[in-house]
Amino acid sequence: MSTAPLLQVNDLKKHFPIHGGFFGGVTAKVYAVDGISFDIAKGETLSLVGESGCGKSTVGKALLRLFPLTDGQVILDGTRIDDMPGGTLRPLRRRMQVVFQDPFSSLNPRMRVRDILAEPIRNFGLSKSSADLEARLSALMDKVRLPRDAVNRWPHEFSGGQRQRIGIARALAGEPDLIICDEAVSALDVSVKAQIVNLLQDLQAELGLAMLFISHDLAIVEHMTHRVAVMYLGKIVEVAPRRSLFGAPKHPYTEALLSAVPQPTPGIQRQRIILKGDVPSPINPPKGCRFHTRCPYAFDRCRTEEPALRPVADALGEGHVAACHLHDRPAADNPLAGAKGAALLAVG
Amino acid sequence: MALLEIEALQTHFRTPDGINRAVDGVSFHVNAGETLAIVGESGCGKSVTAMSILRLIPEPPGKIAGAIRFNGRNLLEASDKEMRAIRGNEISMIFQEPMTSLNPVLTVGRQIGETLRLHQGLSAQAAEDRAVEMLNLVGIPEAKRRVREYPHQLSGGMRQRVMIAIALACNPKLLIADEPTTALDVTIQAQILDLMRDLKHRVGAAIVLITHDLGVVAEVAERVVVMYAGKKVEEAPVHALFNSPRHPYTQGLLGSVPKLGSSLTGEATRLAEIPGLVPSLKQKIPGCVFASRCPHATELCTAVAPALEEKALGHVAACHYALREGALAA
Question: Where is coiled-coil annotated (chain A) (predicted)?
Answer without folding.
Answer: none
